Amino acid sequence: MSIVTDRQAVLAIYREAADRKRVLPCFCTENLTTTEAILDAVRLHGEAIGEPDLPIILALTNRYAHRSQSANYTQTRRWDIGLKLFLADLNVLAGSDSPYSQLRILVHLDHTQFDADEELLRWDMHAFSSIMFDASSVPLEENIRRTRRFVAEQGEKIVIEGACDEIVDATGDIRCALTTADKAQAYLEGTGVDLIVANLGTEHRAAAGNLTYHGDQARRIRDRVGPRIVLHGASSVPADQIAGLADDGVCKVNLWTALERDASPHLLRELAAHADQAAGSQVVAELKAAGLLGPACREDRGLSIDFFTTVYRQTIIFQAMRRIVGGYLEQWVRPMPSAR
Ligand SMILES: [Zn+2]
């Protein structure tokens, strides 16, 4: 099945998810290792529940000031080169000879800035399954006006996600009120977007998952507009709080921070345990002398190609991310009652 970009086919996947009382997971990526970890986790989960054609949304941001994931894709730090490589990688990974060929892959442009991403907004939108048109940084009336204009220009071609409120950065000082049902309804009617990002208490780029997701607020919005809510910042709340998102009217959930935040400790642990093999006894001795490594750290084994290559480090990250994604999929993509 591979990559699905046709607007009607994408909307049908959203309807199918709602019928099955599931939320569509949208994981962001900024490198091939993350992309593969996401796809492999979905492949394994699909096999486990007897649905090898599960849909999965892969996303990245472009000229989003808080984080440009396409720029991070290569050392050129060029968003356009990164985005083209991401699409090229996905096309190969979705090919008929790939282990991921049965998945239904949706490609999402996340946090597309109405101003900074002007050049991207002139690209052919047929290459993408959905786009978040993000004008949440300007006053609401202007946000609605700009978003409505974009829907008029591109709404026939692509599924559009709008944002009536900003989801704030965990590292910043700004905090916003939760999105009300009135505001969500007015925004949807005023803009004509397909999906709406609502502020339900989560934050972007959180160092810990200790905030509160306001499901009651989501249900108030759902009762007005149906299951069209997109939740961002899902890494900032404990996973068990967001197990029942589909019941709250959330149709798509965006997640990225937890993948990187919770995979990094595995790499540190592995490298500390194999420091002499990864960096040599001389470096271990220097780090011990500096107090950065302790007496239990071995320095007798000598350098080994099994431990000092990029593939060693990438495999640790890949496996950790795959486990993290798998944990979310178990909550969000439960087996159908009839399938068991
Ligand atoms: Zn976001």
Q: Please, what is the average pLDDT? A: 95
Separate helix tally: 12
Specify the helix fraction band: 40-55%
Q: Uncertain runs with pLDDT below 50, 5 residues or more?
A: none
CA radius of gyration = 21 Å
The CATH topology comes to: TIM Barrel
What small molecules accompany the polymer chains? zinc ion
**Would you count the extended β strands for me?**
9
Order of helices and strands: EHEHEHHEHEHEHEHEEHHHH
CATH architecture: Alpha-Beta Barrel
Number of domains: 1
Defining key terms:
340 residues, TIM Barrel, eight-stranded parallel beta barrel, 9 strands, globular, binds zinc ion
Short description:
Helix content is 42%, strand content 14%.
Task: Give an overview of the whole structure.
The protein has 340 residues and is α/β, with parallel strands linked by helices. It has a single domain (2-264, 321-339), classed as Aldolase class I (TIM Barrel). The chain has twelve helices and nine strands. An eight-stranded parallel β-barrel has the order 2-3-4-5-6-7-8-9, surrounded by seven helices. Helix 7 (181-191) packs across helix 8 and helix 9 (257-273) packs across helix 12. The chain starts with a strand and ends in an 8-residue tail after the last helix. 43% of the residues are buried. Zinc ion (ZN) binds next to loops.
Topology:
Elements: E1 2-3, H1 7-19, E2 24-28, H2 32-48, E3 55-61, H3 69-72, H4 79-93, E4 104-113, H5 118-121, E5 130-134, H6 140-154, E6 159-163, H7 181-191, E7 195-197, H8 215-225, E8 229-231, E9 250-255, H9 257-273, H10 275-279, H11 281-289, H12 310-332
Parallel strand pairs: 1-4, 2-3, 2-9, 3-4, 4-5, 5-6, 6-7, 7-8, 8-9
Helix pairs in contact: 2-12, 7-8, 9-12
Bound molecules: zinc ion.
Zinc ion is lined by residues 111, 167, 204, 232, 254.
